Amino acid sequence: MNNTSLRQSSGSRxxxxxxxxxxxxxxxxxxxxQLGLSSMAVRQHLYTLVEEGxxxxxxxxxxxxxxxxxxxxxxAAEEFFPQGYAELTAGLLSAIxxxxxxxxxxxxxxxxxRDQEKTYRSFLDGADTLETRLAKLTEIRTKEGxxxxxxxxxxxxxxxxxxxxxxxxxxxxxxxCAAELxxxxxxxxxxxxIKRTEHILA
Length: 202
Prior knowledge:
Elements: H1 3-8, H2 12-23, H3 28-35, H4 39-51, E1 55-60, E2 68-73, H5 85-124, H6 130-143, E3 148-153, E4 156-161, H7 167-172, H8 175-188
Antiparallel strand pairs: 1-2, 3-4
Helix pairs in contact: 3-4, 5-8
């Protein structure tokens, strides 16, 4: 069962995810009691969630006897619950534009890009070749949700982002995309020529 099928499922595994979200860490026996399933069946579902990166466990003392294994969700499981961040961000950008005009939006983008550049430069510190800098850039962008990768392409490289976690905001503020290229140029070096060949919004 992959992540997509979990999102669409109303079965036991989805109910386990919901219980862990509501209650925090729980042991298999407590989950089984609430679901009306055997502890063994619940553990099988939990092991599958662990394989999918959606759950993990830790052992804690439980009075007399064997320590209790507590199960909890990982940050990756957050994608299965409603998020209002995209709509909120787009709405805020629209409000800033209405209140302060394009100048206000540009200042916000510049401040964000400045902070990103500082973080990226620190992360890429010590990467002395273009390939190693791209590898570090790929790592930090993937952590931010861009599902980044890079590969050799003739005399250069292709840097690919398979997802845009700020797509809704970028639609409301195209300056974010332009700032992205400026950010890449700043952290990869002045000697690197960068050209966007495909664009998610296009």
